């Protein structure tokens, strides 16, 4: 999904990886004490949001999520305006909610 949003992979190591897009640098790293499954409803990360370049890009990413067996479009009955604006809300196998926001 990050590649489709224009991010480029930079580094990868055993417990994580990094991506960049222009001056933005994003590091994704697994916590060292990951004995407990992730739950976005507890303290810590709730979700991560990205800006899409177009509504068409939101639609294409939505289609890709729907094709996967390990991901879900959230709030499907209200999609694509679940948050009051044009966006995709989805959740993957790690249960992290991802929001892809399209332009107004």
UniProtKB/TrEMBL annotation:
Q: Which Pfam families match?
A: Glyoxalase
Q: Which residues form the VOC domain?
A: 1-103
- Protein's UniProt name: Glyoxalase/bleomycin resistance protein/dioxygenase
Gene3D superfamilies noted in UniProt = 2,3-Dihydroxybiphenyl 1,2-Dioxygenase, domain 1
Q: Which GO terms describe its molecular function?
A: dioxygenase activity; metal ion binding
InterPro entries xref list: Fosfomycin_Res_Enzymes, Glyas_Bleomycin-R_OHBP_Dase, Glyas_Fos-R_dOase_dom, VOC_core
The answer to whether the entry has keyword Isomerase is no
Q: Keywords of this protein's UniProt record, alphabetized?
A: Dioxygenase, Metal-binding, Oxidoreductase
**Record PANTHER family:** FOSFOMYCIN RESISTANCE PROTEIN FOSX, LYASE, PUTATIVE-RELATED-RELATED
């Amino acid at each position: 999904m990050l590649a489709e949003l224009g991010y480029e992979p930079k580094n990868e190591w055993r417990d994580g990886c990094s991506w960049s897009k222009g001056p933005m640098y994003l590091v994704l790293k697994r916590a060292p004490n990951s004995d407990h499954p992730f739950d976005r409803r507890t303290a810590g990360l709730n979700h991560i949001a990205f800006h899409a370049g177009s509504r068409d890009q939101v639609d294409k990413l939505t289609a890709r999520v729907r094709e996967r067996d390990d991901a879900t479009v959230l709030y499907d009955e209200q999609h694509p305006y679940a948050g009051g604006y044009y966006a995709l809300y989805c959740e993957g196998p790690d249960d992290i909610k991802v929001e892809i926001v399209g332009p107004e």
